[in-house]
């Protein structure tokens, strides 16, 4: 991909690949964790690194490039320690209590994605590349068998609005699709 895009400036890169496979305390295996980490954590890192020159071209020409990685609130350690997802009550989870102590590979891989993004934010700020993570909401997708709280269009509209305001000073922030900054 990087070869095909050689010399093409990229203003905005959205890393949005992910898997969610069942994995409880009793059933999660090494393979379960590794599949999640490979796709949900390492994939966005490798994509960002492969397209670094393209992002830098855009930043040099326009003053800023943005990398947004789609994460999950389930990757927030602070929120997951609160069994009721307390901070999210203010956001939009009133009628959707998510399971606690499950989805080990998914949650761990999204936490790793968040940390990778924080590290990249420190390293790439000098290149005028702003790194943010976006929590898309509990979206009706194949990952949750259509059981989410919002439709994809609502999530996309919200994330687009958030991204339209991102500056270099916002690098390393974790945003909800509705705009609020979320806890790591």
UniProtKB/TrEMBL annotation:
Record-level Gene Ontology MF annotations: oxidoreductase activity, acting on the CH-OH group of donors, NAD or NADP as acceptor
Similarity comment text for this entry: Belongs to the short-chain dehydrogenases/reductases (SDR) family.
Highest taxon above the source species: Eukaryota
Pfam families: adh_short
InterPro entries found in the cross-reference section: NAD(P)-bd_dom_sf (IPR036291), SDR_enzymes (IPR052184), SDR_fam (IPR002347)
Name under which the protein is recorded: NAD(P)-binding domain
């Amino acid at each position: 991909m990087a070869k095909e895009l050689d010399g093409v400036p990229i203003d905005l890169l959205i890393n949005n690949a992910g898997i969610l496979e069942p994995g409880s305390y009793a059933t999660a295996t090494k393979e379960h964790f590794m599949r999640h980490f490979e796709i949900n954590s390492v994939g966005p890192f490798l994509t960002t690194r492969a397209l670094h020159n393209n992002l830098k071209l855009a930043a040099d020409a326009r003053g800023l490039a943005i990398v947004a990685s789609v994460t999950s609130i389930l990757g927030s350690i602070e929120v997951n320690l609160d069994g009721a997802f307390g901070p999210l009550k203010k956001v939009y989870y009133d009628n959707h209590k998510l399971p606690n102590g499950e989805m080990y590979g998914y949650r761990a891989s999204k936490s790793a994605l968040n940390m990778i993004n924080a590290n990249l934010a420190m390293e790439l700020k000098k290149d005028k590349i702003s790194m943010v993570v976006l929590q898309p909401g509990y979206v009706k997708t194949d990952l949750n068998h259509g059981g989410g709280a919002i439709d994809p269009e609502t999530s996309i509209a919200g994330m687009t609005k958030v991204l339209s305001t991102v500056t270099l000073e916002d690098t390393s922030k974790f945003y909800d699709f509705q705009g609020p900054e979320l806890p790591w």
